[in-house]
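Notes from hallway chat w/ T.B., transcribed later so I don't forget. T.B. wanted the structure written out for a chain they're using in a teaching module, and asked if we could keep both sequence and structure tokens in one place. Agreed to drop them here.
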Amino acid sequence: MALDPQVKALLDGMAANTDVPRIIDLPPQGAREMYRAMAAQLDAQGLPIGRTEDRTIPGPAGEIPVRIYTPVAAGSDALPVLVYFHGGGWVIGDLETHDALCRTFANESGCRVIAVDYRLAPEHRFPSAVDDALAAVQWVEANASSIGVDPNRIAVAGDSAGGNLAAVVAQLARDTKGPQIAYQILIYPVTDTDTETGSYQAFATGHFLERDGMVWFIDHYAGEGDRADPRLAPLKAASLAGLPPAYVVTAGFDVLRDEGRAYAEALKAAGVPVEYVNYDGMIHGFFNLQAVLDVGRDAVKAASKALKDALA
């Protein structure tokens, strides 16, 4: 297994730029600004979309900002809907950093996409993000007719920490008998709080997301909370039976690879239909690097097709 040449060139360029601080050496607000600037530079910009609408919805601790994406050439019929939770270690990331990804998902899948700007840590620690994520899916189901979506075709998705939230919401929805979630897309998800797995050891440094970075994110989010709580570590749930079908993506050179694969295997063992895809030469975050990685663009399209087929 070797790094994709485009990935290697990107990592080499980052390593050579010694003037740029690490995200974990910045205060959270500085880290958010740096991540926003990185997204603007490395992800696709100005992708066409049928329509976007920024609004707020009621949440457990106040209004939650969301962005609703209507795909190009959408008709007047109720559309399937994807509720998307952005990545960023529960500390960074927002509607802007994942705008290109949500636009691509909408256009390629034909779904209306609703991106959720949940509360971030450390200002709002665990389980604030979980509470917001679940409230957003509940709102989508309750308001399906007014936003033009089919309440019987709701999917959840997210990358990294957002994949964690999607997995957790799917579990909570099962346990509370709703909302009814038809499909889940988990993109290099955080499924555990164990930072000593084989992939953590193999890719601890030099591969974009580093072990120290994940420790920083988990510490900011979890605080003194129980790190074995399934709402934080969904791999530790007592049972994964009865969850919606899943599409699970991992990257070959990612500290989170092993826990993503373990979650896919655990879902299969519990009788859940799973499609697991590992992109051997990729690093964490490659879905958000569409401007510089050909495989990134192809991977988003492949996940969108799986979503389209699942909700057809």
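Follow-up for T.B.: The chain has a mean pLDDT of 97. Might be a good example for the class.
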